[in-house]
Structures are given as structure tokens and as C-alpha cells.
Design brief:
- With 329 residues, this protein is an alpha+beta fold.
- The chain folds into 3 domains: 115 residues, no CATH class; 130 residues, Jelly Rolls, CATH 2.60.120; 70 residues, Phage tail protein beta-alpha-beta fold, CATH 3.55.50.
- 22% of the residues lie in helices and 36% in strands.
- It contains 7 helices and 21 strands.
- The strands form 5 sheets. Strands 3-6-7-9-10-13-14 form a 7-stranded mixed β-sheet, with no helix packed on it. Strands 4-5-8-11-12-15-16 form a 7-stranded antiparallel β-sheet. The chain has a 3-stranded mixed β-sheet with strand order 18-21-20.
- α1 crosses α3.
- The longest helix has 14 residues.
- This is FecR domain-containing protein.
- It holds the Pfam family FecR.
- Keywords: Membrane, Transmembrane, Transmembrane helix.
- GO terms for molecular function: sigma factor antagonist activity.
Length: 329
Amino acid sequence: MTEHHRLLQAADWLDRQEELSPQERKEFTLWMRDKDNRNAYKRVSGAMQAPEVDFAIEQQQSEPKNAANDDFSADTQSKNAFWGLWAVAASVACFVLVFQLTKTPHQPISPEPQVAQSAGFVKNQQLSANVAQPQSEVLADGTLIYLNADSQLEVIPEQNQRSVVLTRGQAYFDVAHNKQAPFIVKVGEAEVKVLGTSFDIEQLPTTTTITVYSGNVQVTQGAQYSLRRGQQLKLDSSGQGVVTDVRTESLPDWRTGWLEANAIPLSQVVAKLQRYSERPIKFESESVADLLIEGRFPLNKPEQAIQLISDAYQLKVDKQPDVLYMRPM
């Protein structure tokens, strides 16, 4: 079994932990007795930062070997998405978010892919996430990619490197290590190069932001930037970059369903919320778009977040059937 196939199975088991039938629980017990399977399960859950994984592994390792049925069926199903529904309750000062893993309908895992002779990817692949529907994918090399809502990425076949293009939106990468084939992400005019690490890239109309969560990243756009864990590079539309230190002990805020605004223009806040809103959100004036916003807002409730911002910054929300306007009072 290839590592790619094993990761797909691990993702499926993690996704279905809360709804396994007694028979499926026995099948999971048998599957977890394999060391490589346990390692794959740890990796997927670690990328998701699921705290329950240690308990699950401990529980499966401690169960008696006769607890499972010998006629175990290995016909698990593929993983289309890790993402779940967020239940949010708003108060005057804050929101309480409950995040749970759920899934899109499962389909049987396809036959294991053939091992490529090339160090790079061997076929073109288009990955996309719809509005309000973040998605995840395991690439052929074992790299995990998490696409934010309304985002798009293309996998490019090349001989000696693993190349992808982030054509729209935002993505978090947990890159499989491979010294022979660097992992290259092209985003706008910038090129991001790594061997094996985890990082986040966000593309907005006027800025591109690269944040490193582990390992090292090299970014080239005119100038060259070397980033380590806990550093963030912001590139403007002219290619000018600023590197700052940031907290990276936890996942990017969008991976847990939140938007963290620390004195950023309302136009950027809205661009992030727009990925989760079916209706366009527009401004009546540049003065409104340039307002600096601070706060923590739920991504999956964009209209609620817009209303909270408007209340706090003396704005009015004009809700029309096909658009939301933010105006001064």
C-alpha cells in the first residue's frame, strides 16, 4: 500500500470517528494494529490538530486482539473533505465557536496510484473549494493541502520538482519531505520553495501573505526572502515585502473557523468574509473600506460578522437581495 493511499484511509477513519458502527469499530481496531497505519493516522490528525487522536490510538492499542472480527473488510472510503459545520452563538463582546469534523458523502477509494518514475507530479490536477466550503486533498507525494473556501489550486506535471499554482484564495500546505524534488508554489508573481514543511499562503487583491508553521521557506519575487517557523511575509502588488514575527503555535485562524483582525483595513476583512458569503459585500466609499478593524469574527456567519463590525464602527448594512452594502451612519 502506498503512503498516499494509507493517508486517504487515515483521513476517512478520522472523519468518521463519531459515527462508527460496532462492526466498523472492530475494523478500525484491526486497521490501527498496523504501525504504518497508526503513523498515518497521527500525521493526518496532527495536521488537523485533533487533540483526541492520542486517546484514540491509546484506546485501539490497548484493546484485546480478539476484540475485532477476523473477517475484517479493508474496503474503506476516500476522503473528500475534513471540514465541518461550525455552530456559533454571538454575544455583545464575543462569539463562542463549536467546531466539529464532518464530511461530504464518501466514495470508495480508487485503486492505488502507480509509483511515478519522475520526482515531480505526473499529471495535471485541478483542486477547488466552493464558497463557504473549505476542502482538503492528499497529493500523490503524500502532501496534505487544505483549501480555504472559494479557493483554487492547480497541480502542474514537471520532471524534477513538485509544482502547484495557487490561482485564487488561500491554502495551508503540510508538505511531504523529499530532498530530490523541492515543492514549489507559484502565487501571482511570487514563487515559494520548500523541501518539507508546513505553511499558509493567502492571496488577496492587493497583498499576498506567506506564514511558516514549521521548517523553512524560500520566497522569490524580485528579491529573495528566507523564512523560518514563526515568520510571516507580506508582499504588496508591487512586490515589496515585509517580514514580521507571528505566533504559530496553533493552526491559522481560518482553519478553526475564525477571522482574527488586528488593525487591518475593512476591505481585507471583507475579502476574507467574502469567501463564505453568497452575496457580494460592497462599500459605498473608500473611507469605509479603509477603516482599520480589530476583533474576532466567525467565518461561517459572514452576515452576522458584518453586522457586528457595523455596530462597533458606526456603519449601516444595507441588505439587498443580491448584494450587501456597508455605509456610514
